[in-house]
Records
---
Amino acid sequence: MGTRETQFLRRLERDDLRLRIQLKEAWAEFTALKQALRQALDHGDTAQARALVAQIRALIASRPQPSRSKLTLTRPSLVLKRALAAKPGAGFVILAAPGRTKPTLAQQNARFRTPARPVPPLVIHMPSIGGDAGKARFQSTAVTLATPRLPILTHNAPHAETQPRFSKSLGGDHRGFAYIQQADSKAFDEILAQTALPGHRGLAFQLDLADLEHTAPELPAADTSAGPPPTVDFQFRLEGTGARGSAVALGGEADLVFFLGALRADSLAVASGAQLEQAIESGGSLGVMLVPVGYDLRDGTPCRQTAQVVERRLEPEIRFPLKAGRLINPAAGAWAYLDLDGVQLGSFFLELPIVAANAPVVMAAEVRHIDLDSDGQPVGAQLVFRSQGGALNVSYANNASGYGDTCALPTLSPASVEQAVAVFKSSVDSVPSDALWSYLTDPFQQPPTSNQQKSLDGMFLTIARAGWALWATLTADPDLAKFLHDINALPANSRVSVITNSIFIPWEMIYPENPDALAVKPALLWGARYLFHTTLPQDSNIAQDKKAHRNSTPGASLCVNPAIDDDFAGVSPLPAASHHAWAAQARLQNIPCDEADPAAARALLLGNGAAPSRKWIYLFCHGLGGAGNAIDLGGTPPNLIQPASLAGTPPFDGRPIVFLNSCGSGAHSALALTNFYTAFRRDKQALGLVTTSCPVPATTAAAIGQRISSLYLDGSHDLAAALQAVRLELIARNIPIGLFYTLHAPGDVRARA
């Protein structure tokens, strides 16, 4: 059973007395729900437990919160014992009348039949105090003219002393147990009660009666034990003129507010998790990144904001001003990514439907509970494409939810998918060919100028338009649409395995929102959210080949075509030459690097090289698409390698990964590129291929290839995570080229154990 529900039940038990005061007439309903929650936990019924937690939260939220000045009795297990020496009906009643700054106590005693104040109906039965264990100290209120009448029931006497007299100054000590009654129909203004010091038996109560206008007595620090703090939760709420409960009116404006506090009736969702619970107690810096879907952020508000968790509060509340789109959208909402002190906690999608302007307020029946330790963590999914007689069969499985299905697509075929991908590629051709890349040669170090920033913004718009058109084509097939929409709802950093030998889709550049209706949000691109990898079907050797790769010769075999630099005279650093400096630095970090000239590179690929290959074969070369379908390793005569060139040649040692960082590798057709992957995997027994889905500028390709290689070879990242880290680093700098890289290999493989 998850710890969240059990911790919640423990807090209810700890807050029992405070909740009695707050809930009043709803106490019986609360008790029944709490008992049902305990039974659900005992039976391991997670769904029922979560539902009951939501009901209890809603019940508590519907009742007014008690003031901080209300009387708190610590150690309630002792307080609620019935006194053996007390007569039936005797005890203290907490009075919390509206408008009073502090509660009062009045007598409820069957013998004197003095009625207690009507609110709240809570009787605290105090155990009798024996010997010298406790005392009662009384001070009358300055505005009470009559002498208070204080019946005292001593611990060793069967009768009650009904009329002890006290002066208006501090009275003496009285062993035993005191009951307070009204004097001349005037109630005492204040009584504070506390437990005895540790080690004492029973309870000692200090009762201070004072004029609130003149005196605000405080309990001695040594004798004061703060009661349990009220329960608080991290929550989201909507507010503003456009808010309609948990929805927003068409074209309306509303603020999505993330806050920490007692559960509110208008809360949309509660986020929890072990690290969030710890932050409530210990504090920390909480970050929230919001990526709206169907909305724009207003007023130039940054998509990521931070606040401090201090003394069980979030200072300040995190507020995202939203502007709803112009179309009714039941699937609208926002992705929320939470981090604490720089460590990612998880992500989730918060539904915020866009409704008609005159729509009524919409509120969910229950507050949504999001456990970041489970619901917000990455999951796995698998999408399989098989071509049969010109038709395309697809199967899908979500490993977390269990959802899955298999079907023959009614409207899409391998040929139509390849045509859609070709249209996509032609749509983004302007991105790698932009003159910007001759100046922005090191995307990880150079800050773009303002003019370059405008060009980069235009590139993201170009990619988003192409990704949206491809999304629209693929989701036009109703069966494939179900699978793609499920992927689109996965938590951030989920891993999607694509198995195919018939089609290639640039998944990283899928964009599921119309960029001409709303502002472009790079974080919505699938390559920014998910880790994709593609493998061949019925590849039964992958598991053992992953082990062979991990145990193979460490380091990289670099094959760099020096002729690439001929096109970049005056550019610094030169893309091909920069690899020599990278290799030297890698060696200093205990990453061996062999550098092959064009002739040695050809010998390495054809299996007749002087030295065995290492686990990372890195090819920085020209790519020739179309009918040629080749890579140019450089040198004279032309040093071309085609997929057919690899057939019948000896396999590589150690099942390496081949990084085909070719400036034109993405110009290959979808099927031709898959054939290159097939040739490396089948004929050369490489574990897989890292390549580009579209052409890339050589200057940027050099920097990206070196960064991916470093993250993988030093063992800090598995293969898919290395590509993802580079993509996100570049997107954070507003550079899109990292999205052009794709993985045809197992994503979870590592260079080191």
---
Amino acid sequence: MISPFQIIVLLLIFVSIIITSLVLASKNESTFKFLIWVAIILCLPFIGSASYLIKHYTSINTKTNNVFS
């Protein structure tokens, strides 16, 4: 059985992932794209956050690869 402490820890992790993805989106996207990402993240919190984090970290690799090429 899941204890209340485990539920609180999972909720804190979940909220921190959502906040992290929103902060990264606000810093790296234009206003219109940011609003789209906010809608996706708030409507589908786990999937939206995970997809933005994947997009963010894969686009960083392509940006840095283009600079050094």
---
Amino acid sequence: MADRRSIAAEEADLERQVADEDFIISHPAPTATPVHNDPWGRPASPSPDHAPPSGGVPYAPEPPMRDIPSSAGGPVPAAVSRATARLLYTSHFLSTWNSRLFEFAAVLFLAALYPGTLLPVSAYALARCAAGVLLAAPVGSWIDSGDRLSVVRASIVGGRVAVVASCVVFWAMERRGSSVGKDGKDGLFALLVMAACVEKLCAMMNLVAVERDWVVVITEGNEDARQLLNARMRRIDLFCKLVGPLVISVIAVASTLAAVYTTLAMNVVSVLVEYFCIARVYKAVPNLRRSAEESSPAEPIELDTPAAAASLLRPQSRRRTLYSRTTSFLKQTAFRVLPLSSLPFYLRHRAFLPSLSLSLLYLTVLSFSGQMITYLVSVGYTSLHVGIARTVSTIFELSATWAAPRLMRRVGAVRGGIWSLSWQMIWLAAAVSWFFTDTEGGSVAAATGLAVGVALSRVGLWGFDLCAQCIVQDEVEFDHRGAFSTVEAALQNLFELLSYACTMIFSRPDQFRWPVAISVVAVYAAGGLYAAFVRRRRGHLFHAPPCSVCTKLEGHRQGTGALGRRW
């Protein structure tokens, strides 16, 4: 009897042990947070090198970017489905294609309508950039607080309506321009400028909402999927940047009106496809639906309301004079329109330096756009030569969308950014050195050396763009993505405006060396700012290879061998 009781007791103990093991397997204990980020991009692991000294302060590195809390409470997807990715690519391709095509087509149409002068084209481009600077704040606020689908749909419909209206005005100016007189033509041009500003804001809204918010939510918890999605969407952008202007310029050579009709037809047909595709993506990803808390205005940004911001800047005198009321109204309007309310948050954010570095790169004439192309033509390049140079440059740019994700997987986004910027700075230094050897100015050989160096530097530019975008996506809190990214977009438009101002001040081809010098200074300033960020984040800029002699001496000094083993 006693034996049976002892056997039963042993069986009960065994069952309890098995139950305990099952509980431990199904509920593993939380692992300790890694305290050492491997400089070669491998998974973080504890390191004896960072063990706190006796009586010292424990080593507490900055948490890795991927540890930022999820932006939604839904399940974390293992990967992005191919169907969802295809729908997102289709919508993004059509939006980018129409935007890039219209941006270039408008310049061609204005050049045909106003031959012999660059003033209308310059005023048109400056107004578009100014709209991006002045109205970035309300766009960012709506992206952060509005329904995600409504925001993107409004950007699609608003952009297409603005392009259609512009095409109608272009048609009227082409067919009836001589009969409306100078005042009528100026009025139609004003309508074109207003429509261009609307299209610019809608394009910026679509870009920020999709690339900086939707992509992060869709790939939440899957960094590899996000890097791949970023690279493919940037590849789409660069493809549209090359092929869109090429297609519309070929049509415009035959007939300006035919190019207007083509632009109009593309925008009318594509709007329904874009609308449908983005709705399917929204339906396929439940995390894109905002909760009530997400839709409420965010608190952490200081100076969040125009009244509060203006109150800090009011004159100390409390007299309600006409001057003080006017000043108060202007300050409130400035904080309502300009992205000033989000600026303190942007300046203090941990992603500020990468974002500002990326924005500084827009202060450049060293790209195959209007300013540099005009210079190349002035020194003797033909349209064929310019087309070949632009095509080669775009091929290099596209190659960055394949190279950058592999670089980030190998060394991480932070180190990938400093490597990419270094590549850009090296090739620009070589290009400018070759260019400035021509002391007289106007040499085709000097211009060719500049063009080759600029084309090679574009690999680093777009590689850094993808790395900085990945850092911003990881670092910025989900309820402030719109505010942060629209301040960044406003700065990019501001620096682009400054690049136009440079070529307006130094407008002669023999003065092009000064805008080139300013562009190089801006690139190196961006490199310095990003180097400061890398130094702050990692403790050093470049990882030095291990030195066996130094390791052996350090081991002897600490009483260990070269492999770190205690004697």
---
Amino acid sequence: TVAATAGGQLTDVSGDTSWDVNRGVTARALANKTTVMVADVMADPEYVRGWPGVRSELVVPILLDGQAIGSINLESCQTGAFTEDHQHFINNLSEHAAIAIQNARLFEQLQRGREEFRALRNVALDLLRMTDLKAVLQTIAGAAVAKTDAMDAHIYLYDEEAETLTFGTSLWANGEVDREAAKPRPDGLTASVARAGERMVIYRPAESGVFRDYKQWNTEPPPGGLVGIPLKRGSEVIGVFNVAYFNPGELTEETLRYLDLLAAQASVAIANAQLAEEIRSRRDQLQAVLDNINTGIFMVDADGTVSLINHRVRSWLHTDTERFIGRPYAELLDAMPVEPINSEPFMQVDDLIADIQLNQSYITRRSYALTVPEYRAIDEVSIPVASGEEPVSGRIFVLQDTTERLRVDQYRDEMSHMLVHDLRGPTAGLIASLHLAIDEMQSDASVRDEQILHSTLQVALMSANKLLDLVESILKINKLEAGEVTLELKPFSLATVALRVSATLSHIAEAESLSIALDVPDALPAIVADEELIERVVTNLVDNALRFSPDGGEVTIKVVARSDDQVIVVSDQGRGIEPEERDRIFERFYQISGSDRPRGGKGSGLGLTFCKLAVEAHGGRIWVEESANGGAAFHVVLPNSSAQSQ
């Protein structure tokens, strides 16, 4: 190739002009590595005519380490134009030219090396930030096409055990992505490189045996060169990196060196991305398992940051727990709204962390109650995560919901309390009365007091009835909870029920200087329900209201008819019920805290439980609010027609 020209007719010759080095005077000089001076080119049989008018020529080869790397050609339109002095001068000039060309090539090589290093460094930095396999593959393909002016780059992933190739990505010079040129053939370049684990370079694909049957596979070989490079993790082939070129000359040693280095980076990045995907997959599987258990779990890394929170914890806290991932676990613990259970102290977060920092293998235990969004008793255990003699790599916190167990314990305690107090009194009264009656009956008939005998038997009967009522209440509640009660449905008026309850309890109210007021419409439509159960509900509510009413107080029974249902409201003028207890009062045996009743003995704690179950059996609702006078107002909503009657 003509690299530079000067003088006369040659000033128009471009640097792209090529000359055949196998013919002419220049060819002889390069082949013999010696100067050739021709006084008359017309007399030289090897002269190849170039520009018209040339009569003499001086050709001096440029030699570097004994190799011809170029030549300096002088041509003249005069015969015998060049002398020995000219030859000596040009010989010296060629020596300087050889050194200059060598320096220029070294400089260009250094520049290319720097550019190559910068390109590989930038690719490496990009790959370090990536854990997505697809993004890694596309970055590698982009680096190959952009830096080496390739026609296209294809990357395949290889399963060495199964001997299968999976298309990863491709990038074409026009920017097209993920178009596969053709499926890998059993004896094609990709499969051959994967099996051999060695780089393969094909300079003329159309003439290569690898593409001998390409028409059968509906594909075309690239017009220029093609290289396939194995991607390895150690000795294991994990993929194949194919790069195609428009011209065979583009596959230089520098290009191959760059692609080898890029493939080495790609192997590490792909292995890391595959590992990251496997870790993500395992983590997702673990998350799925943890999300489907009833235990709350969150995991902490060795650096004390939260790495995983399962669905149970998220639902308990009722907040976006993702914001705690990657944050110190103390922030998660501090965010939990907790309080002691039954006023029992528990370890605070700062003390817990201090103990763990003091001893990484320490197993911690705490019991507390989560208060938001609902009350939940929790037993918390934290266990260090370690394998054998390896150092602690993290910590797992296990949160067990003990709310039901706590309620069972409370139920057992309340049942024991009921057995001791509520059953003991009537039973003792019954036994004492029977003993007194027996003594009286065994006495002499002449001195027997029939009045005493009658009174003691009345007390015994009253105590027995009280025991029976308590047992029947428990049995009735159990049946209601189990759905085993068949409602005796019939139409009736709630006005009639309100009147009967008022009449039944009015003598008790009057004896305590209390009154019962009715607020019932004259024309109240009938509802379809179990009249006996509903009357018992209203009786229980009014009886409770009388117990908590102050002297001179008034209890109101109000009925409101609506389009689809009717509402019964029983309100009093007592001290009311605290908001935090308004749901719990319907639980079995629950007694209002500090409930000093102005009148009447302590109840069994079953009345409101019965009311709730009986109302819900009709498809209704019951709740308590603050009354207009500051007391309690119990609301009962009953549908006009019960679900069982439809």
